[in-house]
Specification:
Elements: E1 7-8, E2 11-12, H1 17-34, E3 43-47, H2 52-64, E4 68-73, H3 86-100, E5 105-109, H4 115-125, E6 131-136, E7 142-144, E8 150-152, E9 162-168, E10 173-179, H5 186-195, H6 198-209, E11 213-223, H7 238-261, E12 264-269, H8 284-297, H9 304-316, E13 330-331, H10 339-351, H11 357-360, H12 363-373
Parallel strand pairs: 3-4, 3-6, 4-5, 6-11, 11-12, 12-13
Antiparallel strand pairs: 1-2, 7-8, 9-10
Helix pairs in contact: 1-2, 1-3, 2-3, 2-9, 5-7, 6-7, 8-10, 8-12
The chain binds nicotinamide-adenine-dinucleotide.
Residues 48-54, 72-75, 87, 111-113, 137-140, 222-224, 270, 272-273, 275-278 line the site of nicotinamide-adenine-dinucleotide.
Length: 398
């Protein structure tokens, strides 16, 4: 069938297998070219491995460091005329390239929060030996607890209604968005349950008990801080509480790993990029569009794969102590948060309206990145060609 993008708000309900495979190849080429590390990890587990930061980290682990990788994802295969999700195609394409390169690669499709998936991961890892690196890159809207209770995370401010500018990405219309604060404290607790560090530490405990943590192992979970203009909805909102919990978990895990395995645990604060998760947060697409313009002009622009390359080559595997901030966090958002970058973004934020949008923001790059997440708009891919949605993204790109 001919597969076209079907966009509903901030979601695209279709994905293109050949386009997704081509995008995976683009990231692989960057990892091979710039991401080489000699003393990197040999076996890597990535939880949330099919999209965004998790996918890029898996690609860097395999094609930059030559690691065996186990990925965990929650994706949907194709059914009849319905395409699979982009993450499904991405992982299929990744696995094929990894095997071609002689690298062990396996992906578990299921709920990372569940005990069953943890057990499956342990069983699989017995084939390749203990892990040197565990990356926790889940972005999940809900978590099913062991007793079957479903807990939902919310993106809400705390205390006051948040008002700010936002862009409707499809039309370029600028509106004021109003987000009501939480109505009950349990909304904070629930968001912490889903996006905080508890499940990360359950993974580490399960691997430790199974004897699958290598001496000197590292674990990293991803976080975001961002600019003041998003503080009420992000850093000081419900999700910020979850990220604070993730950071506290890193400290606890660091002690555990240091004592038992001479290991380390970090939170890495990454930069804002276009992913399925970030596009769902009001205000963020407009901020990212302005940020892109500023960072591109300063020669500082990066996507997920460039961040993953820097994580490996400039932070984790340099042979030197890992550079961290005063709260022991790795800062890959260092360029985004540079005072000159933030000042330039703030000045443009004040000015941005529908008339100035094209001049002050790079909405075209935002839109192109968004479409690319689903395998659309990629050079060299014939979108008029008939493709089998069940093909699994392993077709050779043109
Ligand atoms: P994403 O939406 O691109 O990917 C999320 C991944 O999680 C996918 O692989 C998905 O399959 C997997 N997943 C979701 N629920 C799952 C479940 N129950 N079981 C197994 N897998 C599941 O997300 P992203 O934007 O790359 O975010 C990953 C992490 O990076 C998050 O912690 C996020 O806060 C952080 N981060 C994101 C940004 C950004 O701008 N996007 C910036 C800094 C930090």
């Amino acid at each position: 069938m001919i597969i076209e993008p079907k966009i509903r708000g901030f979601i695209c309900t279709t994905a293109h297998p050949v386009g997704c495979a081509a995008e995976v190849d683009r990231e692989i080429a960057i990892a091979r070219d710039r991401g080489r590390v000699d003393d990197g990890p040999r076996t890597v587990l990535v939880i949330g491995s099919s999209m965004g930061y998790g996918l890029a980290t898996r690609i860097e682990a395999a094609f930059g460091a030559g690691a065996a990788t186990l990925g965990v994802q929650y994706e949907r295969p194709a059914a009849g005329k319905r395409t699979a999700t982009a993450g499904w195609y991405n992982s299929a394409a990744f696995e094929r390239r990894a095997r071609e390169a002689g690298l062990w690669a396996h992906t578990i499709n299921g709920d990372a929060f569940s005990q069953e998936v943890k057990q499956e991961a342990i069983d699989r890892l017995r084939e390749v030996g203990p892990v040197d690196l565990v990356v926790y890159s889940l972005a999940a809207p809900r978590r099913t607890m062991p007793d079957g209770r479903v807990v939902k995370s919310v993106l809400k401010p705390i205390g006051e209604t948040y008002r700010n500018k936002t862009v409707l990405v499809e039309t370029g219309q600028i509106e004021t968005v109003e987000i009501e604060p939480i109505s009950e404290p349990s909304e904070i607790d629930d968001t912490v349950t889903v996006m905080g560090g508890e499940d990360w530490s359950w993974w580490i405990e399960a691997l430790d008990e199974a004897g699958l943590l290598a001496t000197g192992c590292t674990t990293v979970a991803y976080s975001y801080i961002g600019p003041e203009l998003t503080f009420p909805i992000y850093r000081h909102g419900t999700i910020g509480h979850a990220k604070a919990h993730l950071e506290a978990t890193a400290h606890a895990l660091d002690q555990r790993l240091a004592t038992r395995h001479q290991g380390r645990a970090f939170v890495s604060v990454n930069k804002a990029v276009v992913t399925q998760s970030s596009s769902a947060i009001p205000v963020v697409p407009l901020y990212i569009s302005i940020l892109f313009r500023v960072m591109q002009e300063m020669g500082l622009h990066e996507g997920c794969i460039e961040q993953a390359v820097r994580l490996f080559t400039d932070r984790l595997y340099t042979g030197q102590p890992v550079p961290v901030d005063e709260e022991q966090r790795i800062r890959l958002d260092d360029w985004e948060m540079r005072p000159d970058v933030q000042q330039a973004v703030n000045a443009l934020w004040e000015r941005v309206d529908e008339a100035s949008l094209e001049e002050v923001a790079d909405l075209d790059t935002y839109r192109a990145d968004f479409l690319r997440l689903f395998g659309f708009g990629i050079e060299g891919v014939d979108y008029q060609a008939d493709v089998d949605p069940n093909f699994g993204g392993v077709e050779e790109p043109a």
